[in-house]
Design brief:
Number of domains: 1
Structural class: mainly alpha
Shape: globular
Distance between the termini: 28 Å
Strand content: under 5%
Radius of gyration: 23 Å
Helix content: over 70%
Number of helices: 11
Order of helices and strands: HHHHHHHHHHH
Length: 295
């Protein structure tokens, strides 16, 4: 695991950084386009002025709601295209010992729509689950509100763990959305503790990668406490530089570490549970479109 990060960590982080820049650029361009398109309807001035919705005319309010809805939908789609690049690149490292910036964008555009469809399907499945959980939690809340809320949070956490591997199965094995969900749930059912450990280690890797970002704030403590000497100013300047650099690479680095841990444990612990006859060294290629869903 550490050897993989030593060989590919820098390139994977750089790929995530460029992907993040591209994602934010698309986000800004889409927002600008929507603002320009809204000019004929007369709502741009209300958006820029942050007008109170109660003061708007009904027709303008409708267009304003439509504007924000379209913007959120586009943001949602762009987010999952970015996620496809992250997952696909990490799978390439784990399965093929290969990483490239071009591979990140290839995965993004090749698997982005699949993840959008996967999330939509999961969202549809969540509707009945939401109502069932709400009723159960409401019953428990009659005994204790805190107990009801803890149960609600814990239930959603388990559901998240059950679906955690579905994007990896969809990208790596080319499975359909429903098949990837079923297999992900099966992995969780067979090894819930192992799935929780994977989530915990992935989260830990994410947080460890953010340590330099949080450490940078320590340099400002002397200045915050009232220090006005050269030493305090020098520490504040150093802290500012560290904060600037770390804030620029913190998210790509933490994402690279987290996704690498997730995919590594997927290969070595999760996937063999549903494909036990395969040698871990001879798994299907990352871009395979295998559709065998036998259990």
């Amino acid at each position: 695991m550490l050897q993989l990060f030593k060989r590919h960590g820098l390139k994977l982080t750089l790929a995530n950084l460029l992907g993040n820049i591209f994602y934010n650029a698309v986000f800004m361009v889409l927002g600008l386009i929507l603002l320009i398109l809204s000019i004929p309807f007369g709502i741009t001035e209300h958006i820029l002025a942050d007008t109170d919705p109660t003061e708007l005319e009904f027709s303008i309010a409708i267009f304003l709601v439509l504007f924000y809805f379209i913007f959120l939908v586009l943001l949602f789609v762009a987010t999952f295209y970015y996620s496809a690049g992250i997952y696909g690149s990490a799978l390439d490292v784990v399965y093929h010992d290969h990483s490239s910036i071009n591979g990140f964008f290839k995965n993004m555009f090749k698997h982005g729509f699949k993840l959008v469809w996967l999330f939509l399907l999961i969202s549809l499945l969540m509707i009945p689950i939401f109502f069932i959980l709400t009723i159960i939690v409401a019953i428990f809340s009659l005994l204790s509100f805190v107990l009801g809320m803890l149960l609600y949070i814990f239930a959603w956490f388990l559901i998240m763990l059950a679906f955690m591997y579905s994007p990896l199965l969809m990208i790596h094995d080319g499975l359909k959305a429903w098949d990837s969900i079923k297999l992900s749930v099966k992995i969780f059912r067979l090894k819930p503790g192992q799935t929780f450990a994977t989530f915990g280690l992935s989260l830990l890797a994410y947080l460890i990668a953010l340590v330099p970002f949080f450490i940078s704030f320590l340099f400002f403590i002397p200045a915050i406490l009232g220090g006005d000497g050269v030493f305090s100013i020098l520490l504040a300047v150093i802290g500012g530089l560290v904060l600037l650099i770390s804030s620029f690479i913190a998210t790509p680095l933490s994402t690279a570490c987290s996704s690498l841990v997730l995919c590594y444990r997927f290969k070595n612990f999760a996937r063999p549970l549903i494909f036990p006859d395969e040698d871990p060294k001879d798994f299907e290629p990352s871009f395979s479109f295998k559709t065998d869903t036998s259990y």
